[in-house]
Amino acid sequence: MIAGWEKGTFSNRGADLYSVDIYDIILEMNALIIDxxxxxxxxxxxxxxxxxxETLVEVLSESELVTKDFFxxxxxxxxxxxxxWMVGLHIASLGVILTVINTAF
Length: 105
Description:
Layout: H1 22-29, H2 36-45, H3 50-62, H4 68-104
Helix pairs in contact: 2-3
């Protein structure tokens, strides 16, 4: 399940559209799609029984697999968030230091 769907972020596109990050919308479209019929045919052609092939494809289809693009976008989003927090903390600590210096002298 893609982040956002279970929280209902994308369910109401009218009011919530501006509160959704553009990367969330891109990630929504990057869901991994498996051609189950083709996968089952290939597996059975390569020695799997019909039941084994169907079970394997079902497990893979239900798994939360991600594409490289999905993974990289998530990492970029996390990095942006971390950098914003680091900059904010540095600014706040500089403010505390300046306040201490002004109070001491």
